[in-house]
Amino acid sequence: METLTFPDDWDVIECHMVGYNKRALTHREIKASFTKPFGTDRISEIARSRKNAIVIFDDMTRGTPVAKLVPYIIDELKKGGVVEGRIRFIMALGAHGARNRMDFVKKLGSKMVEKYAVYNHNPFENCKYVGKTSNGTPIEVNKEVIKCDLKIGVGSITPHPMAGFSGGSKIILPGVTSLRTIYFNHCVLGGYGPKRTPHESTGLGVDNENIIYSDAEEAAQMIGLDIKVDVLMNEKREITEVFVGDPVAQRKKTLEAAKKHYLTYPSENCDVVIANCYTKANEADTALWAGLRSIKDGGTVVLICHTPEGQVVHYLYGKFGEKMGGRGWEDEKPLQKIGNLIIYSRYKEIDPHLPIWSKKYEGKVFWAKTWEEVTEKIKAIHKASIKVAVYPCAELQYPIQNK
User: Fold this and answer.
1) Are 320 and 350 in a shared domain?
2) Left, alpha or beta for 236 (phi > 0: left; psi -120 to 50: alpha)?
3) Where are the alpha helices (DSSP H) in 150-225?
């Protein structure tokens, strides 16, 4: 943990989300959540008529403390008669790069990795076509997921820049679908891609009939996602609520709670915005909404993203050469009204895999390895008294709408 200090003459405002310091659940409280699922029977009851179980969990771009949840899922499966050798895990990578044993241990814990098979999802191969959604999206799903007759998803619900909120059925689409499926959902339907316009139903915190999410929900129903487990987290990445149940029924309850928990009242007309990216430092551009919402025209945004791995490999939106990238990659991502962007990271990348800046803006984008460098740069840019807004977990925070 790092404590940021500011000059005495700066007007600094902390913009926390409502649930930033909510108490973490105890082990007993987490366990109790699995005994009363929403809209369906307990996992142990469903498991009595099933043979093979797969637990689909989110990847390293999500802060979900999966290791605190899976022991209770395993207990439920064993109570239902599913033997150890018929339980496996798969990391829902979507279009992200594959991970290794170290990452599996970080998400699941070493005991789980030693006992159960854990696989990466491959968006390029081993996906089976199961039909089209009502929107026309061709659904191709991981064959290992398809062949298991009990499917359980584990993740967290947080604000999402395209789907409104993450969690729910997104564990299936994009989580374990092919790149073709993801491209159609994100770019063709959603409008997030080169020379496209985002669909009016999409955007950060926009959940009413969001076409990207509703399409994912339909895909999850097509392949038979049985149970979804989602959590809410405080600013320390601790679990404050757990929601277990039928993916559709559970989603309604989770979304209602998430809107209240992550709600943030943005400060306005600021010279400088500090956007800390804690749980998604490897997808740092998701934290930039805070700057766009709070900054005055020509202001400075400081994006904090300390992560040794840098920006995640993304086969749809990532960069794979000086002037080439995935099918959804855009050569020039606009800074909009941001005058200067300071990327505060101890792990500098000249040209990140997932672009958080464009070479078009050289002279306006700066890297800093120390907080002292950051404050000195701000002083050089802004000569007069400075109004600063600090967002401690910008990538988790949900700005009040219609502002």
Assistant:
1) yes
2) alpha
3) 179-183, 211-223
In a domain, 5, yes or no: no
Q: What is the rounded distance in angstroms from the CA atom of residue 120 to the CA atom of residue 102? A: 13
Residue 400 is predicted with a pLDDT of 82
The residue assigned the tokens 């973490």 is 24
Q: Which long-range contacts (CB under 8 A, 24 or more apart) does 379-382 make?
A: 379/7, 381/300, 381/339, 381/340, 382/271, 382/272, 382/300
Q: What is the pLDDT of residues 212-231, one digit of tens each?
A: 999 999 999 999 999 999 99
Q: Is 126 helix (H, G, I), strand (E, B) or coil?
A: coil
**277 and 237: one domain?**
no
Q: Are strands 295-304 and 338-344 parallel, antiparallel or unpaired?
A: parallel
**3-state secondary structure (DSSP) of residue 140:** strand
| CB-CB contact of 226 with 49 (8 Å) | no
Q: Residues 6 or more apart from 23 whose CB is under 8 A from it?
A: 240
Q: Using one digit for the tens of pLDDT, what is the confidence trace for 276-296?
A: 998 899 999 889 888 888 999
Taking only the tens place, the pLDDT of each residue in 283-342 is 998 898 888 889 999 899 999 999 999 999 999 999 999 889 999 998 766 667 888 999
Based on the fold, state whether residues 280 and 360 are members of the same structural domain.
yes
Residue 82 exposure: Cα atoms within 13 Å on the Cβ side? 27
pLDDT of residue 184: 98
How far apart are the C-alpha atoms of 398 and 145, rounded to whole Å? 32
Question: What is the pLDDT confidence band of residue 399, given thresholds at 50, 70 and 90?
Answer: confident
Closest of 38, 33, 39, 111 to residue 72, by C-alpha: 33
Kindly report the CA angle at 176 between 114 and 261, in degrees rounded to 5? 90
Residue 157 sits in which domain range?
27-261
Coil, helix or strand at residue 120: strand
Phi then psi for 160, rounded to 5 degrees? Answer: -130, 135
Query: Does residue 402 carry a pLDDT above 50?
Result: no
Q: Identify whether residues 254 and 223 lie together within a single domain.
A: yes
User: Contact, 279 vs 393, CB < 8 A?
Assistant: yes
